[in-house]
Specification:
Keywords: Antibiotic resistance, ATP-binding, Cell membrane, Membrane, Nucleotide-binding, Translocase, Transport. The protein is of the alpha/beta class and 304 residues long. It contains 11 helices and 13 strands. The strands form 3 sheets. Strands 5-6-7-3-8-9 form a 6-stranded mixed β-sheet, sandwiched between helices.
Length: 304
């Protein structure tokens, strides 16, 4: 469905995307995970045919998006990082105008819009102005709008940025339903839980390069331990304490606000810490996540 080989994008002397290669088969939910500035959105713009690559090869459904952009875009749905809805129009009219832009007939659009409003849980808001909607509702409307042309591939750039936890989970449910219908999802995110929930496979991207590729579970098994112990001793003590307990786990990381101990048995680590007369202000045992994978691969947090 999508194939990229040695994809490069430069802006003057700055290299935003530095020779990445990946493939996305039909029906997969594929994620690009990385911090702001990693090259995720630039990659999405090249896939969408709105930004020309500097070098490399890119195919979407066997077509080059630069040479056959209109044909490719006819089969794409795009959800940009920032909602770009017409705030003064009603919800229903936003979908109608967008559909007419694709040359779709009113006869087709009338039932399609009703279907999309139901999908986005916006039936009771159909005649409301967009600027009266909540952030979560606007995001669902943007996704509904991207589905007007029944795309084979849906590109989502940071789909839940700025949403509260409840709105994020509602949106996740809508995306799960699209995946069940066979739509290929390609999304960027810097939220580790989002990548774990939505993606069959991800690439971890930093500074325009791929650091690792695999399913979320595979990456966690490969680069982290089963559990992580988080200890907080205070910003002025964390580094010193980390040196005293570096033998208690497979790896120990001293961050400004906490110490992370990577081990397969977190409770045993807590007991060993207490046995050494060390008493953290707070402690927590949790399962490893993609955040830990990224920290291991790059030496810094996703939110740095």
């Amino acid at each position: 469905m999508i194939r990229a080989e040695n994809l490069v994008k430069r802006y003057g002397d700055f290299t935003a995307v530095d020779g990445i290669s990946f493939e996305v088969p039909a029906g997969e939910s594929f994620g690009l995970l990385g911090p702001n500035g990693a090259g995720k959105s630039t990659t999405m713009r090249m896939i969408g045919g709105v930004s020309q690559r500097t070098s490399g090869h890119l195919e979407i459904m066997g077509l080059d998006p630069e040479e056959q952009g209109p044909v490719v875009r006819a089969h794409l749905g795009v959800v940009p990082q920032q909602d770009n809805l017409d705030e003064e129009l009603r919800v229903r009219d936003n979908l109608m105008v967008y559909g007419r832009y694709f040359g779709l007939s009113r006869a087709y659009l009338k039932p399609k819009i009703a279907e999309l409003l139901d999908f986005a849980q916006l039936v009771d808001k159909a005649d409301a102005r967009v600027d009266d909607l909540s952030g979560g509702m606007k995001r669902r409307l943007t996704i509904a709008r991207s589905l007007v042309n029944e795309p084979k591939i849906l590109l989502l750039d940071e789909p839940t940025t700025g949403l509260d936890p409840q709105a994020r989970h509602v949106l996740w449910d809508r995306l799960f339903r699209l995946k069940e219908q066979g739509v290929t999802l390609v999304l960027t995110t810097h939220h580790m839980d989002e990548a774990e929930q939505l993606c069959d496979r991800i690439i971890v991207v930093d500074a325009g390069r791929i650091m690792a590729e695999g399913s979320p579970a595979e990456l966690i098994r490969r680069f982290s331990t089963r559990e992580v112990v988080e200890l907080r001793f205070g910003a002025d003590r964390n580094a010193a304490v980390a040196r005293r307990i570096e033998d208690l786990g497979e790896r120990v990381e001293a961050l400004p606000d906490r110490v992370l101990v990577y081990a397969h048995e977190g409770e045993a680590v807590l007991e060993a810490v207490a046995a050494r007369g060390l008493h953290p202000v707070t402690s927590l045992v949790r399962r490893s996540s993609l955040e830990d994978v990224f920290l291991k691969l790059t030496g810094r947090s996703l939110v740095d």
